[in-house]
Amino acid sequence: MKVITERDVFSMLEIKKEHRQRNVRRFLGNRLAVTGSAILLIFALLAVFAPFLTAYGPLEVDPVNRLQAPSSEHWFGTDNFGRDLFSRVLYGSQVSISVGLSVAAVASFLGLVIGLVCAYYAILDHILMRICDGLYAFPSILLAIAIVAAMGPRKSNVILALIIVYTPSVARVVRSVALVVREQMYIEALRAQGASAWRIIWVHMAPNSTSPLIIQTTYIFASSILTEAALSFLGAGIPAPDPSLGNILLDGKSVIFTAWWMTVYPGIFIMLMVLGLNLFGDGLRDLLDPRHNEAKK
Fold it and tell me: How many domains does the chain have?
């Protein structure tokens, strides 16, 4: 039996350190990932520090100054109730980020569990995948509208509806990767050694299935922001008067020709947030998917 010396441990630590440094250099050298990260950081800071960036509350009504154009007092102007639009857009961004982050985190976890279990157990695969296929057959926006309409337009219900909508897509991705991992020789060796199914699934299969899951999570984050805005615009999402980028656009629809700022500014925020997430996801794909890198070369 080989004895591991202090020099061997030091060498392994150095290798891990070099590997981390190489990954950091690759990330910083990836323009898509860096640009997306910068955009996301800016919007995260705007959402977190919203109470300190504006002197007005998102629900403060001032009918005398309704539909005021952008000025030094109201940077984004005011809406049809005299509320400061800059404040409402910042707090609406908070809602979008919180909904997107919650949906992405929970849907990714549930999809990981369902995908791994389906890949390992054939019986559960036939049952759970048919349910996922049934949900996946509906257009995401229509399924979300149906679920929210049944439960009522609230933030928690919007999050739950979007989790139901996006979990099947994550489960399908994880299952497809886990099926390949399950057929590897080391998995067969673990079974022959008497390793439990729990250990095989969570200690060996799960870590080797997370790369596409991470990329999929960023796209679900972006899609959740868009879908939440669409639901709120249709009146099935965050109820008024609570600020949401979608219901701000809804308020601006009737005055789009006389108060353009009510649709332009929230639209720009939605576009940039989704753009940042997509760029970040593309950058992660370039870093984590070696097959994609080879195809580009």
Answer: 1
CA proximity to 278, closest of 240, 239, 223: 223
Question: What is the residue range of 242's domain?
Answer: 6-296
196 — alpha (psi -120 to 50), left (phi > 0) or beta?
Answer: beta
| Residue 98, burial from CB neighbour count under 10 angstroms (0-12, 13-18, 19+) | middle
* 195 in any annotated domain: yes
Residue 20 binned pLDDT confidence (cut-offs 50, 70, 90):
low
Instruction: Output the 3-class SS for 203-258.
Output: HHHCHHHHHHHHHHHHHHHHHHHHHHHHHHHCCCCCCCCCCCHHHHHHHHHCCCCC
* pLDDT for the residue 12: 56
Q: Grade residue 215 by pLDDT with cuts at 50, 70 and 90.
A: confident
Residue 1 forms part of a structural domain: no
CATH number reported for the structural domain that contains residue 131 in this entry: 1.10.3720.10
* Residues paired with 78 in a beta bridge: 84
Strand partners, 84: 78
> 108: pLDDT confidence band, cut at 50, 70 and 90?
very high
185 vs 94 pLDDT, higher one: 94
Residue 169 CA to residue 104 CA, distance in Å, equals: 12
pLDDT of residue 9: 46
Measured CA to CA in angstroms, residue 193 lies from 50, 69, 189, 199 at distances of: 56, 72, 6, 12
At 78, phi and psi to the nearest 5? -125, 160
Residues 200 and 213: beta-carbon distance below 8 Å: no
Contact criterion met (CB below 8 Å) for 214 and 97: no
Residue 253: both structure tokens together: 């629809």
